[in-house]
Amino acid sequence: MDKMLAVVFKGEGNAVFEERPVPRLERPDDVLVAVEAAGICGTDVHILEVPPGHPARPGAILGHEYTGRVVEVGQTVTTLQPGDRVIVAPSIPCGICRYCRLGRPNKCEGGTALGIYQDGGFARYSRAPERALFKIAPDLPADEAVYGELLSCVMGGTGRVRIQPGESAAILGAGPVGLSFLLFFKAAGARPIIVTDTDAFRRQYAHKLGADLVLNPLDDPVQERVREATGLGADVVVDAVGSLFPHSIELVAYGGKVVLFGMNEQAVGAIRQNDITFKDISIFGTHLGVNTFPLVIRALERGVLKPSVMTTHRLPLDRFFDGLAAIKARQAVKVVLVP
Ligand SMILES: [Zn+2]
Ligand SMILES: [Zn+2]
């Protein structure tokens, strides 16, 4: 039987390269995908922390942001055939729990996720059910398509605020999430867009992606500079870090909106509730996108979003650990692995 190299989670901070058999179709709706590109996500870093910042199943092949080409389809598969190119939507809701039936599959009480609980994309091949796969145009470069999952989550946040041309935005954090918000807001005509990050490497990318003003919260008086640049404060503030809610309230204009996207279970910043009431602020928590893949794929296919500008490292799969180290050393924005 054919073997392939895979990055396998072994529990408590440990991942190894393992020889695995190339997966075979098991269920009638299974599809075998040859992976073309797979991104290393912040979640992968959290999975490998001690103690873990995100749960995962030991024995699972990691990698949940990936794109590839269909090799083989099960008997009941009708929407795909061999040769089709696909983006993988790794979260697979159960479809029958209370939240799924309320139209909130992102809060599914059963379900699973490829690359976290089931085998994912850090390998040459991956098996996925038909409903987890979205067909993409044959000419959409894998370097762009590999961002489909990340952008689908970010669209969950941008959909809440529906920014208008001429509105201003402040994005706190210039990692892949913050920079994706920047791409969306630029495409929507927001201006000025201010991005903050403590990390020089990431600030450089915020400039490169077209932020109007890039600030270092360790050196710059952010509140003052945002006020100068926007007049009234930012119409929309995004916390892409997960611990900057109090700071977000300081930066937002009266009547503005705050999106809380970053996740940090330890963060417990003090908020003066009256500031939210008096400033007339709307606050949006957002976790994963709901039905956002089709629109993200359109935006990628039509060239409205070109996220590959965030790729700092394009490495062969067997250099996974180099990519991981670059992210941990904050010398990378997005690392893409090519099997
Ligand atoms: Zn991810
Ligand atoms: Zn469910």
Question: How would you sum up this structure, described in words?
Answer:
The chain has helices at residues 42-47, 98-101, 142-145, 148-161, 176-187, 200-208, 222-230, 245-251, 273-279, 293-301, 320-328; strands spanning 3-11, 14-21, 30-40, 65-73, 85-88, 91-92, 112-113, 125-129, 133-136, 169-172, 193-196, 213-215, 234-239, 252-260, 282-285, 311-316, 334-338. With 339 residues, the protein is of the alpha/beta class. Strands 3, 4, 5, 8, 9, 16 and 17 form a seven-stranded mixed beta sheet that branches. A six-stranded parallel beta sheet has the order 12-11-10-13-14-15, sandwiched between helices. A two-stranded antiparallel ribbon has the order 1-2. Strand 14, helix 9 (273-279) and strand 15 form a beta-alpha-beta unit. Helix 4 packs across helix 5 and helix 4 crosses helix 10. The longest helix is centred in the middle third of the chain and has 14 residues, at 148-161. It is globular and about 65 Å long. It starts with a strand and ends with a strand. The mean pLDDT is 96. Residues 93-94, 97, 99-100, 108-111 line the site of one zinc ion.
